[in-house]
Each structure stands twice: as structure tokens, then as C-alpha cells.
Amino acid sequence: MIREICKDEMFLSQKAESATPDDLTVAADLLETLIHHQDGCVGMAANMIGVNKRIIAFETDEGYMVMFNPEIVKKSEPYEAQESCLSLVGTRPAKRFQSIKVRWQNEKFQERQKTFTGWTAQIIQHEIDHCEGIII
């Protein structure tokens, strides 16, 4: 189901709760909402659709990906970026890293780990910030 985009900064500034297998429908809604907004959006976190759970979805070169309970375990090569967000007005500065190693759970809640670089790494960092309640 395509959900409405949450713009409530008070809600968005809350740290997300851990996702569980009961949240698979939230992930499906998140992905469907992201695809619906694909012309102006490359990633979303569950709080952007009004659900305070640690779930992100984003576009990659190979298609879309969903992560449950993602966390960055290693980062390198910092740089300054300018980012926008469907939930927020305007463009804002953000410190990002060219390379990040992420640990997460897949839709079967099996742990995964992978290093991401470049644009994909920047998208993931933005969405994990949402999970942390960080408003850029």
C-alpha cells in the first residue's frame, strides 16, 4: 500500500525501534511507496511513512533493496554533501562517507554484511540517519 509521506519533524526526530518479522508488511508498504515516488526519491526509511521502525528501502544499480535493523559498522573517506528529502523542505548539508560497511537483516531476518560505496553509500547513510532520529 502506498502510504502518505510523514513531514512531522517531532516524529521524524525519534529514534526508531528495532524491526521484527511482524514488520514485513511495513517493509512492503515502504518499498511500494518508494517506487511510487521514484521520480524524486531514491531511498526511504519507515518513519517517512509514519512507522517508527528500523527499516530502510533504497534504489541500487541492481534494483531495490530493503534492510531491517541496519547499522554502519565501518566508514571511511568523509566528504560534505547536499541532500534533500521528501519529508523535509529544501536542501541541507550532511557529512557522508565514500565507503561504509553495513550490517543488517534481510526479509528472513538473517544477518548480512556488505561494503557499499559512492552514491549507494550516501543513500544508505541518509536513511540510517532517519532511523537514528537525525534530521539533516
Automatic annotation (TrEMBL):
Pfam families: Pep_deformylase
Listed GO MF terms: peptide deformylase activity
The protein's Enzyme Commission number: 3.5.1.88
Residue ranges crossing the lipid bilayer per the database entry: none
Keywords of the record: Hydrolase, Iron
Similarity-based family: Belongs to the polypeptide deformylase family.
Protein's name in the database: Peptide deformylase
The species this protein was found in: Candidatus Ruthenibacterium merdavium
